[in-house]
Design goal:
Helices cover about 35% and strands about 15% of the residues. With about 240 residues, the protein is an alpha/beta fold.
């Protein structure tokens, strides 16, 4: 066990409240591609426009069929299972903390985590017709993006699209989770998407900050940076 992992283990044991800030990298070991890394969705796809536009509110409204095709092809992995990172975070946060995630795959919840804020919503709750409000199972959405009784466009869950605002309840909850923590652990996120990336400004002065990421995020205020595969790190906690 490396000195860095030993130090992280000790920080967790001594802490009173641990807040995990997680992104797409946490779910890569479960078989879900991330967005911005070398093999991520935003780097490997062939798009007529930007992937950000494909996942935007404007695209949903103006080109619903294209939006549906892109979303189903790139975002839905209903058979994915939680990995050791999800499981260990669930164990720790259920005892003393919170998980604030950018991920829309619900794997933290599937791992048994009870204290989770899905900052950008998820793909599985409240899938509904924008015309009449009727709700649908995700399995229906995987086959069809329209409600044919009224030709309404179906929206995929509570997911926050580009051009939309984060749910204020999630935003305030995330800010509180950061301000309540005496240890914050950032895992699998580039910290480039706002307002998620701005959550660290709510960290208290004496709160320890740990970054676990294969690639250097250059988070200058971090007290500990572990440049290692998160699976390897969390298997040893």
């Amino acid at each position: 066990m490396s000195d860095e992992i030993i130090e992280l283990k000790n920080l967790i044991e001594k802490s009173n409240f641990v807040t995990f800030l997680t992104g797409a990298g946490v779910s890569v070991p479960s078989g879900i591609p991330d967005y911005r890394s070398k093999g991520g969705i935003y780097r490997t796809g062939s798009f007529e426009t930007t992937p950000e536009y494909m996942l935007s509110h404007d695209n949903l409204v103006n080109h619903p069929d294209a939006f549906h095709g892109f979303t189903v092809e790139n975002l839905y992995y209903p058979d994915a299972k939680p990995n050791i990172i999800h499981k260990k975070m669930a164990e720790i946060s259920n005892k003393k903390g919170m998980i604030v995630t950018q991920n829309v795959d619900m794997l933290h919840t599937k791992a048994g985590a009870k204290n989770v804020i899905e900052f950008h919503g998820n793909l599985y709750d409240n899938i509904h017709c924008l015309t009449c409000g009727k709700e649908f199972d995700y399995k229906y959405y995987l086959k069809d993006g329209r409600h044919h009784e009224d030709n309404g466009v179906i929206r995929p869950g509570t997911t926050v699209l580009y051009g939309e605002s984060v749910n204020p309840v999630n935003l305030m909850g995330a800010q509180k989770a950061v301000s309540d923590a005496d240890l914050i652990i950032v895992v699998g996120t580039s910290l480039k998407v706002y307002p998620f990336a701005g959550l660290l400004r709510y960290r208290k002065e004496n709160t320890k900050l740990v970054v676990v990421n294969k690639d250097d995020l250059d988070v200058s205020e971090a007290d500990l940076t572990i440049a290692d595969d998160a699976v390897n790190v969390f298997e040893q906690l």
